[in-house]
Amino acid sequence: MSASPLLEVRDLRTHFFTRAGVVKAVEGVSFSLEKGEILGLVGESGSGKSVTGFSLIGLVDPPGRIASGSIKFEGRELVGLPPAEMRALRGKRIAMVFQDPAATLNPVLSIGQQMTLAVQAHGRASDAAARDLAARTLTRVGIPDAAARLDAYPHEFSGGMRQRVAIATALLHGPDLIIADEPTTALDVSIQAQILAEMKSLAKETGTALVWISHDLATVSSLADRVLVMYAGRIVEAGAVGETLRAPRHPYTRGLLDSLPAMARPGEKLNQIPGTTPSLLSLPPGCPFAPRCPRADAVCATDPPDVVTASRLVRCHHPLEAA
């Protein structure tokens, strides 16, 4: 492990200041990421995963903003960085792959035009050189006859192919960090497996680090090196992916795993975590998971401690026994 991590996040708090009150979407999140490492960020919808990703790349729109905390990329503080300097990093050194490529690709520009513009946004390159780089990058993510496909439009591609275009666009400048926000959710299993293999190969061969945001624990278990489990804007468990998912110590992580269809016996009802995620405008005192937790008692009305071992962090008054 290097002396200085590629990315270091400390006590990040991203809030949305609405008329109804302050929505604390990310509250006290801390983690680090090494070069070439793949970090999985998991949790239910509304847990703060995507807002964490948008915060890292400076794409939180009003009324949201980073209220406090630190995001350091190669030791450089990104919080408060002037917009022009952030734009110089975004796309070149730090890239993002969004969940829905149909919403991020311009329908009236060809794939080649869009990728050429992305290349030229961060350096002087002729149209021919930019198109050549775009074709080589599309080939890298498995798009056949890439040079000819540059003249196609997004609607002429399948969902899986559009997602490959989005990933290729993120790879154009050889970024040091890619943030992927549920990029394979809408894809069929075979295409998903191919993309996961490509991303693992990318991290291994080039040293690109990945933050993989997903609600799919199976995907994260096959891809990531470490996993952060988020609930109500907080990290409730963190550790090596294999150890954490084989023997979870937080009741919420256990509940997520028990809810997987593979955990149910044929003919039986699927397990589920009771209740719903709390409103971030009116969180309960203490542990936000307490109203849904089978282990909760009176002490859970106070803030849970961080139970830290050599390889695991668990934020809970009553963690499950270590296996």
UniProtKB/TrEMBL annotation:
GO cellular component: plasma membrane
Single Gene Ontology BP annotation: peptide transport
Subcellular location: Cell inner membrane
GO molecular-function term, one example from the UniProt record: ATP hydrolysis activity
UniProt-listed InterPro entries: AAA+_ATPase, ABC_Ni/Peptide_Import, ABC_transporter-like_ATP-bd, ABC_transporter-like_CS, Oligopep_ABC_C, P-loop_NTPase
Residues of the ABC transporter domain: 7-257
Domain of life: Bacteria
Short name of one Pfam family: oligo_HPY
Keywords: ATP-binding, Cell membrane, Membrane, Nucleotide-binding, Transport
Protein topology in the membrane: Peripheral membrane protein
Keyword Membrane carried by entry: yes
PANTHER family reported for this sequence: DIPEPTIDE TRANSPORT ATP-BINDING PROTEIN DPPD, OLIGOPEPTIDE TRANSPORT ATP-BINDING PROTEIN APPD
Protein family per UniProt: Belongs to the ABC transporter superfamily.
NCBIfam families the record matches: oligo_HPY
Protein name, per record: Peptide/nickel transport system ATP-binding protein
UniProt lineage: Bacteria, Pseudomonadati, Pseudomonadota, Alphaproteobacteria, Acetobacterales
